[in-house]
Amino acid sequence: EEFLVEISGTTVTITCPVTDGSIVWQPAVIKPSDNEGKYIIEDYDSSPRNLTCSSGDKKYSMYLNARVCTNCQELDALAVSGIVIADLLITLGVLILVYYFSKDRKGKTSTGAGGRPRGQKMQRPPPVPNPDYEPIRKGQREVYAGLEPRGF
Q: Which UniProt keywords apply (predicted)?
């Protein structure tokens, strides 16, 4: 059988697995509760403790090492799922906006410093032939036929 440990803020409530008879806690309960099967620690300082509850010949021990905080907020599953869904919807909305505004700009270029006005196409100069190479024309393959591979 297991202890039931509930943590809320800095209050830790431990329920003993023993259900019958008078329950004795070691160390003794500082503030006795209405239900003697519960051990309540208020303003718990996160220090480890050994606790024992017994009733008659049944004795249960546990080592309590829980972390608590004073400014924590408890969230239920509905609140967490709402936060996650809202985050996904906002992210999806941003993606749609980015797609919508970027699809109109496809193919358009922005002007930089010293750029040309919009709407004018830039004329590219024809490529300058390299004087080291002569283009191969039909019927002139014999110019290159005599070249043999050189060993390096």
A: Cell membrane, Immunity, Immunoglobulin domain, Membrane, Receptor, Signal, Transmembrane, Transmembrane helix
pTM for the full predicted model: 0.47
Residue 108: which pLDDT band, with cuts at 50, 70 and 90? low
Max CA distance (Å), the chain? 115
pLDDT bracket for residue 97 (50, 70, 90): very high
CA distances from 118 to 29, 68, 112, 122, 125 (A): 83, 64, 11, 10, 20
Structure tokens that stand for 129 in this block: 């032939």
* DSSP run (H or E) holding 8: strand 4-8
Specify which residues 33 forms β-bridges with: none
How many other C-beta atoms are found inside a 10 Å radius of the C-beta of residue 25? 18
- Please report where in the chains the tokens 């109109």 appear, as a residue: 104
What is 20-67 written as a DSSP string? SS--EEESPPSS--SSTTEEEESS--S--EEEEEEETTEEEEEEE---
